Amino acid sequence: METNPPVPRAILVGVQVPSVDDVAHAASIEELGRLVKTLGYEVVGTMSQKRYEIDGGTVLGKGRLEQLATITGGTGVVGSMAIPQKSKAREHFEDADEKKPDAPQIEPDPDAPPKPAFVIVDHEISPSQARNLERATGAQVLDRTGVIMEIFHRHAHSREAKLQVEIARLKYVSPRLRESSAGERRQGSGAGESDLDLDRRKIRDRLAELKEQLEDIQRDNDQRRSTRRDQLRVALVGYTNSGKSSLMRALTGSEVLVADKLFATLDTTVRTLQPETKPRVLVSDTVGFIKMLPHDLVASFRSTLAEALEASLLLFVVDASDPTHESQLEVSRNVLREIGADVVPSRLILNKIDRVSEADRAALRAKHPDAILLSAKSPEDAAALREMIIAFFEAAMVEEQLVLPYAKQGLLSVVYENMRVLREDYDTTGRIIRVRGLPDAIARLRTTLAAS
Ligand SMILES: Nc1nc2c(ncn2[C@@H]2O[C@H](COP(=O)(O)OP(=O)(O)OP(=O)(O)O)[C@@H](O)[C@H]2O)c(=O)[nH]1
Ligand SMILES: [Mg+2]
User: Counting CB atoms within 10 angstroms of each CB, which of 33, 393, 423, 451 has the fewest?
Assistant: First the structure.
């Protein structure tokens, strides 16, 4: 009989520095828990500590580190890299003092589930901090960035997304590889040097190869995007799990993936707003944002997010039922600013309003008077949002007359794709068309017509 492989068990570790309040700290740990669950791990506990700063060597203080090691089955000491030992008596005294009553205490139990094999730290930690923690706990150590990288790796489907993620991962792994190999080398035979150089060169070559492949794909994608440039385009952007794909489904009737997972969507999808309008409106679903989104991932998803940059309208989706939605909004705004999309007109969509009480709705309306409160699950709300989108474009469009010489009838399809044709006449110069369209699209068409 086949048995399922055991679910990896993980313990979360967070350090609360003075600049972070209790609510924000708890929310951050909770989000880390959701990231870890998205990876398919079971979260068995949290070890949290208030510290003035994140400890240089081992993240946690000595006492907490030992408690953590009790849970994971490690020695609690880093070994040769440890800070100088104190006298035994002093150590006992201080440890007893540091063991707070709220710390998890585990009695040995033969039927107890296996000890957690993973320690997951809610900060970006250095390679040497990770190594020290691994030595002390005997568990595998991942930080927030590592978890996000792993999720992106698993959720990437398109060739482009896969390449982007692999590039980001290699950049993340290579300094870690360097330091850990260097550390091992110091104790080893001394022959490691060339191995390390070899590894580095392999990674450099691989990165160059991947970047080349990615550029090829992106050239094609840029081409495709530029043919869509003058169409009416809306992009759904926002924090991960806010409901972008759900709204995409509701607006376009497409079967994009909706899941209660973080980073369910990594590939940009473009679909037509339904029922179709004239000219049609294209809606893009995009990759979500998160607190401390690794910089290499932001950089690699820049091209994916170009969809957002080129849209005429951004629908900025927020999960209004999430208690931390204000800080999520802030994070999303920062990422958009970073990629230069903060200049694109946007509408704030406070989604999942079906989960928000009447009183909280009133507070939301007062705080965000221009926002649209809705539920992606409500067909009426989706229909109203569609009307809002159409109204936005109607307000932005202008009416103009174009003359299409008989020699340039090939451009007729461009006209119909990007504009609404109100009237067509013919005379000796060509086809005279009265159109309604976005000013930029009309201007570009005029330029094309003028060039011969
Ligand atoms: N109750 C309720 N749940 C919603 C609503 N909109 C989305 N959800 C749920 O929220 C979860 C995330 O929805 P998605 O549409 O996948 O979110 P997303 O923004 O595309 O997430 P990523 O692709 O991971 O960034 C799913 O379980 C949805 O069913 C809503 O209006 N009300
Ligand atoms: Mg999605």
Answer: 451
